[in-house]
């Protein structure tokens, strides 16, 4: 045994580390890093060598993944939890498939997932308490995949299992916070608002979106979309003046978020129209055409022109399946037809709005209410 270790050490120490990338054997360089870590007990020096392997041989996925995971382990030994997580995030991002092949990873993942699923079956909704001990024991290598699994699970649950979807998202938020991933945590909290919205629990949706604003003030892109969703929720609980206030805050506080502002002006104008204030509606849509948002977002510019009667609405709307704003476009075309007194065309595009929304999203609910309140849900005149 001693002879074997001595031979390995002699081979590693003799490796021409600085001899150039083409002449360096990545396995030899990796073994040198391993010896420095385990033999010399010097994780600080070893992490530099592991990083060198990962950088020089990034195309050799197996060795690069192995080197990065060992580098993360070195940071853990050094007490650098922040760097341990950062390296694991990078490793998972580039070498997910290679990491998943590891028998040790597979065994531990099965154990963790089994325990989590067992806990998820409990009716408790206090996720922080439910998973407190699990979070404390989880290694960085498992946090990202478990978090991603929770997000995927919530997406599958959201249509038929409200409690399960919310619990999965709350656990994903806790994991994201542990990773220091504020953007994903904010997005997951926003999804809680979306789910409440889909179930027409609009007050709960507003509370969920407001939590994002309080907890993640730096996520301006997400916050701008949420600001608009809160306005939409107020409109649907028959508080249009609150909705207009929230649209106004969007335009004022998130003026740098051009896409959201452009849609916000269209919807703010429609809110005025719903109140019978056509003059303010047209004023808002005209402002849209005079700003930079119109130039940067031609679709919204086109819709503003249609709403103002400066452009004829299309007779049909052909949208690709992944077009998330096709339902919004169909809705505004319906509004133009309704303003023109073309009831049949308005009904047609409102129903198209619902179909394109696939039972979700804000225009679906508004279009349904609009059809009923305006008496457009009848099949004949």
Give the proportion of residues in helices.
Answer: over 70%
Mean pLDDT: 83
What's the CATH first level of one domain? Mainly Alpha
Question: What would you say the CATH architecture of one domain is?
Answer: Alpha Horseshoe
Distance between the termini: 93 Å
Question: Which terms summarize this structure?
Answer:
381 residues, mainly alpha, 21 helices, Serine Threonine Protein Phosphatase 5, Tetratricopeptide repeat, elongated
Kindly describe this structure.
This protein has 381 residues and is mainly α. It is built from 21 helices and no strands. The chain has helices at 2-13, 26-38, 43-56, 61-77, 81-100, 103-120, 127-130, 132-137, 140-157, 162-179, 182-198, 202-215, 220-236, 240-253, 258-274, 278-290, 292-296, 298-307, 326-339, 343-357, 362-373.
Layout of helices and strands, plus pairs?
Elements: H1 2-13, H2 26-38, H3 43-56, H4 61-77, H5 81-100, H6 103-120, H7 127-130, H8 132-137, H9 140-157, H10 162-179, H11 182-198, H12 202-215, H13 220-236, H14 240-253, H15 258-274, H16 278-290, H17 292-296, H18 298-307, H19 326-339, H20 343-357, H21 362-373
Helix pairs in contact: 1-2, 2-3, 2-4, 3-4, 4-5, 5-9, 9-10, 10-11, 11-12, 12-13, 13-14, 13-15, 14-15, 15-16, 16-18, 18-19, 19-20, 20-21
């Amino acid at each position: 045994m001693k002879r074997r270790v001595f031979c390995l050490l002699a081979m590693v120490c003799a490796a021409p580390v600085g001899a150039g990338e083409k002449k360096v054997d990545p396995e030899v360089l990796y073994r040198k890093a391993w010896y420095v870590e385990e033999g010399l007990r010097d994780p600080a020096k070893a992490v530099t060598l592991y990083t060198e392997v990962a950088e020089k041989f990034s195309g050799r996925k197996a060795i690069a993944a192995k080197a990065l995971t060992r580098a993360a382990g070195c940071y853990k030994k050094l007490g650098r939890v922040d760097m341990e997580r950062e390296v694991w995030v990078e490793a998972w991002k580039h070498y997910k498939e290679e990491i998943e092949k590891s028998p040790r990873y597979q065994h531990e993942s099965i154990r963790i997932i089994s325990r989590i699923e067992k806990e998820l079956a409990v009716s408790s909704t206090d996720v922080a308490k439910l998973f407190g001990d699990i979070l404390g024991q989880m290694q960085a290598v498992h946090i990202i995949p478990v978090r991603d699994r929770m997000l995927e699970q919530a997406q599958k649950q959201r249509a038929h299992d409200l409690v399960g979807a919310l619990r999965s998202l709350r656990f994903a938020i806790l994991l994201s916070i542990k990773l220091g991933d504020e953007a994903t945590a904010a997005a997951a909290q926003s999804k809680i608002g979306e789910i409440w919205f889909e179930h027409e629990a609009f007050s709960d949706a507003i509370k969920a979106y407001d939590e994002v604003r309080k907890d993640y003030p730096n996520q301006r892109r997400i916050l701008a979309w949420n600001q608009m969703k809160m306005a939409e929720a107020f409109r649907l609980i028959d508080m249009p003046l609150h909705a207009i206030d929230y649209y106004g805050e969007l335009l004022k506080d998130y003026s740098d978020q051009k896409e959201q502002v452009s849609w916000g002006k269209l919807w703010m104008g429609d809110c005025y129209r719903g109140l019978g204030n056509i003059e303010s509606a047209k004023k808002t849509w005209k402002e849209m055409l005079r700003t930079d948002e119109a130039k940067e977002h031609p679709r919204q510019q086109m819709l503003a022109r249609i709403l103002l009667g400066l452009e004829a609405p299309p007779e049909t709307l052909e949208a690709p399946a992944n077009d998330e704003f096709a339902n919004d476009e169909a809705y505004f075309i319906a509004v133009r037809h309704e303003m023109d007194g073309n009831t049949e065309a308005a009904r047609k595009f409102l129903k198209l709005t619902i179909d394109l929304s696939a039972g979700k999203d804000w225009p679906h609910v508004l279009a349904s209410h609009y059809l009923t309140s305006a008496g457009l849900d009848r099949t004949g005149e």
